Amino acid sequence: MSASLYLDTSAVLRAVLENGTSPEVEEAIATAPALITSRLSLVESSRALHRLRLLGQLSEAKLADAQRAISAVWARCELWELTPSVCERARQAAPGKLLRTLDALHLATFVLAREKIEDLQLLTADERLQAALEEV
Asked: Which is nearest to 4 in space by CA: 36, 28, 34?
């Protein structure tokens, strides 16, 4: 049986935008009994698509397809809010790692969610976030 997953934005963007490069990620998302993410993921994914549009890196048709696919993934997720607890945990997260702010917020949300969902695993394409897991 598949594990429940916390989806970092990077994993979803990679699965949708880099067609065919991550069949394992796509399979994991498709078969997970439960999906969780931070509300931050909705903002990050929208900003990424805006950036691609402004840079002219994808056609409008491909951007629309990507938006639909990303929205379908987020619709399956339980959204966790950026609460004071998440923010405080993020402030203290992985002090020995070069972890960016948004990644610290994802890590903190994952850690808090994992306290309630025992089999929860983090799915990320971000090497810094993956490395920070060693400290939690």
From this structure: 34
Whole-number Å distance between alpha carbons of 77 and 24: 18
Number of other CB atoms surrounding residue 98 within 10 Å: 9
* Beta bridge partners of residue 59, listed in sequence order: none
Distances (CA, A) of 77 to 1, 3, 73, 80: 18, 14, 7, 9
Contacts of residue 85, defined as CB under 8 A and 6 or more positions apart, other chains included, come to 112
Rounded CA separation 58/118 (Å): 39
pTM summary value: 0.91
Q: What CA–CA distance (Å, rounded) separates 3 from 19?
A: 24
Instruction: Give tens-digit pLDDT for 7-29.
Output: 999 999 988 888 655 677 888 88
Residue 121, H or E segment = strand 121-123
Contact 110, 120 (CB under 8 A): yes
> In order of start, what are the domains of the chain with their CATH numbers?
5-135 (3.40.50.1010)
